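Support case: user asked for a sample of complex input and structure output to validate their parser. Sending the pair below.
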Amino acid sequence: MLKLLIAKELREIIGTTKFAVTFAVCAVLLLLAFYVGARNYQVAQAEYDAAVTENLNQMAGLTAWGEIDHRVFLPPQPLAVLVNGIANDIGRTVEMRRRGELRAENSRFNEDTIYAVFRFLDLDFIFTIVLSLFAILFAYDSINGEKERGTLRLSFANAVPRDQYLIGKIIGSFLALVIPLLIPILLGCLLLIAMGIPVDGGEWGRLALILGAGLLYFTVFLTLSVFISALTQNSSSSFLMLLVVWIFAVLIIPRVAVLISGRAIDVPSIDRINYEKSVFQRQQSDDFRQKMQAYFAENRGEGGFDQDFFARFQEQSQTWQDENEAAAEVFNGKLNEDRQNREQVQQRVALNISRLSPASAFSLAASELAGTSLALRNAFIESVNEYKTTYTTFIEEKTGDDNGFVRFSMDDEEEEEPEPIDPQELPQYQFSLPDTGTLLSRAAIDFGVLAIFNVLFFAGAFVAFLKYDVR
Amino acid sequence: METPTPAPVVAETPAAPKGRVLLEADGLTKRYEDDTLALNNVSFKVRAGQVFAMLGGNGAGKTTTINIFLNFIDPTDGEARVDGIVTHREPLKAKEKLAYVSENVMLYPNFTALQNLDFFAKLGGRTDYTKDDYRKVLLRVGLQEEAHDRRLKGFSKGMRQKCGIAIAILKDAPAILLDEPTSGLDPKAGLEFSRLLTSLREEGKAILMSTHDIFRAKDVADIVGIMNQGELVMQRTKAELEGEDLEALYVQYMAGYMDEAQASA
């Protein structure tokens, strides 16, 4: 019976214009997303390679490691071009410094602002907006439409269990929507291979999981549509209701979640933090100047500013400078940590509220699996900070001092002609995403949320349909 | 004019019943939530090989009776039984023994006639038919061969009605419910339908038919019942109606009830 009902549903949908339109739109959008994504990856990879080479080239001819201007870059990720997440919003370049904070700069949207206006066409957009609408289009009249057409009455004049009829409807609609989706996706995957995008086994696995989340996501809208269709007596009412629900679920809730958390948890702005840091630095500079003046006054010996005085002064000022830098690091670290903690709480609140929307749950799961979630920014900065330690040790070994501080020298000794440095000796910066298991465990909550939505809406549809007047 | 006394509500059909009772309404009463009394203590029996024609105006309770047999609604009181199975207690079991043709047969417009037949035959539990079987039944109900492979969206009401009747035949259920089945059929198709009904009766089917068509009722029915305002106000066998003017009788019963209703108002 169930097989018969599924086959009927499938055949009924496949024979319609809406199926043909869905297939055409999905094919065009998905293939375009894969093609544009692959091209973007190629361009981003070429830019990345050029930036890395240029970074090394500009060190050529330098003779002191202390003089180098070293930058590291966030390498492009193949899945990031299919699910953009925040990949285009965060800075991709970090100027390496042995002291002070490291900042990521030069985001894609910062460089090409026009893309920030309309964003890229990616799988996230296609699933959250286009496919959810198609899911509604496929199922908004699944029950009341059959009643309006008179076929429900004839069907239930037979010994048809209502639960099987409902499951048949949902599975049939699901399969009818999966067909226009899977064919272009498979073609898109072949396109990635043909265009030489280096997708490894783990990334294929994650892409499959993203598609799994996508299927779970539009099933939410299918079951919701069947639910609303079983609650209402005519299809125009159910369509209107679903449109309103869609607007709230896809467009409003995620934005409201961010607004609410922004209001509820105050996070000081970067400008504010920078202001506090500069006030502290000014205070330190004043202290430093006063200490120097005092030192000069107290320690000016009989012999005036002799070489011994300068040596002692240099040593003392170095000590004060070290103390100041350590204090500044503690102060800045505390400010940063405090801001980061508040920001994390704000993000957690925003994300949890936004999970009331299945669209958010899908976007979060997809971006987590693609490695383009909010965690990407922290992961990049953390990896750069880890590299900073290696880089600092390397530079210290090369320069022989602890900070490249140029010492005063009163000697007129002839120095040897310095050898040019070899930039290839620099330790390589590497960025890698966590493994699939870790990313999946982060996305698990959103898979769970989508599963809960499905169960709730199916249960609602089941209860509503049990009471449904099929006459 | 003297108002005829309504026939007893519970009435064993006076003609010697040959088959077993396949359709039985036993004190069926239906009161809706808005307190409308749609059926009031309606009882009748339809045996194998009998056609029971329910006559009555709009809102008389004919379709409500059929809806209770199909378990689309539950009775407030009384029982509807199909081959002894109480429909609101074991609806799926009861429906296995029922075929149904509605007043306005609506099928899947994007399916061909054969595809519709295939789906509904299988839904009715018949998986043993071939395409040839479907074609034979469609020809039997008078649907021309060139229409068999056409999508239903271009079919007239009469053509859809024929498909609906074919679906009911294919189910091969012992009892058949027909809700205004000749509505929309042209006179020729109506005549063909009467012949078909006769042949189904000869096959031993118990047929309950609601209709406005007094002449067809008199022509094919073994028992004629008249319903008015939710009550079965008359039921007579074909033999009892012999020589009677059914149309006049119908008008008399309706008028009598209208008089009563006016008096009580």
